[in-house]
Design brief:
The chain is an alpha+beta fold. It has two domains: 156 residues, no CATH class; 74 residues, no CATH class. It has six helices and ten strands, in the order ββββαββββαββαααα. The strands form two sheets. Strands 3, 4, 5, 6, 9 and 10 form a six-stranded mixed beta sheet that branches. The chain has a four-stranded antiparallel beta sheet with strand order 1-2-8-7. Strand 7 and strand 8 form a beta hairpin. Helix 4 packs parallel to helix 6. The chain is elongated. The termini are far apart.
């Protein structure tokens, strides 16, 4: 991620990568309640044709740096990943701040906001020194709808709450009840975040399905029992 001179030598542009292909990131704790995630080459091909992404700072929509449809943001896929080339409008005070923070190394990472359209899950066995091998899940994101790219202070998911919500969203998309149960053994809070037992577009006037509610309670009790080693 750099600030580089433009061809006319009087202006500068932002350059970086919002995503790196085939680079594995830990979401949550992959050895217990999380998983590994990576982006497959070509995941952005369709969205770059159809979309109108923005560049932000720290995923904050107030701090809009540039936009594809405005001709100020150029996003391309190459062999490495999602390349970002953005104009920098010095009339925006926060753009001046961004330039300074990139130059002095305070901000050195990028991220992106997206919706998963297509993914694939596999299981791998990880060898751990001094312990039994552990099976971990790996999520390969194959197609996304890109909303924004951001220069960020903390790349990826660095906070526990954000990681937990990211795992819950992935489990929602996966739609795998067994996967939910396995992870909820270590983090029962996941059962409050996933929506596998909820009916889409439910309104306040819609009666809850008693069987679904009972199933959700059962899952939570089993998860708590497993986590705290209680008799069931």
């Amino acid at each position: 991620m750099t600030i580089r001179a433009h061809a006319d030598a009087e202006t500068e542009r932002f350059a970086g990568y919002a995503a790196i292909f085939n680079s594995r990131t830990a979401i949550g704790n992959p050895l217990r309640w999380g998983f590994y995630e990576e982006i497959a080459p070509g995941a952005f091909t369709q969205t770059l044709t159809d979309g109108d992404a923005r560049m932000l700072i720290d995923h904050d929509s107030y701090y809009v740096v540039s936009r594809v449809s405005a001709g100020t943001l150029d996003l391309t896929e190459d062999e490495r990943g999602l390349s970002v080339d953005s104009a920098l409008d010095m009339g925006l005070s926060y753009v001046n701040d961004l330039k300074a923070n990139v130059r002095n190394g305070n901000v050195s990472g990028m991220s992106f906001g997206f919706y998963v359209l297509k993914d694939e899950w596999t299981t791998e066995t990880i060898e751990i020194e001094g312990a039994d091998p552990v099976e971990v899940d790996v999520r390969v994101i194959q197609e996304v709808r890109l909303v924004e790219v951001s220069a960020v202070t903390f790349p990826a998911y660095s906070e526990t709450e954000a990681e937990l919500k990211a795992v819950a969203r992935a489990l929602d998309h996966r739609g795998d009840r067994e996967a939910v149960e396995a992870r909820a053994r270590y983090r029962p809070e996941l059962l409050d975040l996933v929506h596998l037992d909820r009916t889409p577009a439910t309104t306040a006037r819609t009666k809850q399905d008693p069987a679904a509610s009972a199933r959700a309670i059962e899952l939570r009790m089993r998860a708590l029992a497993a986590r705290y080693r209680l008799p069931r």
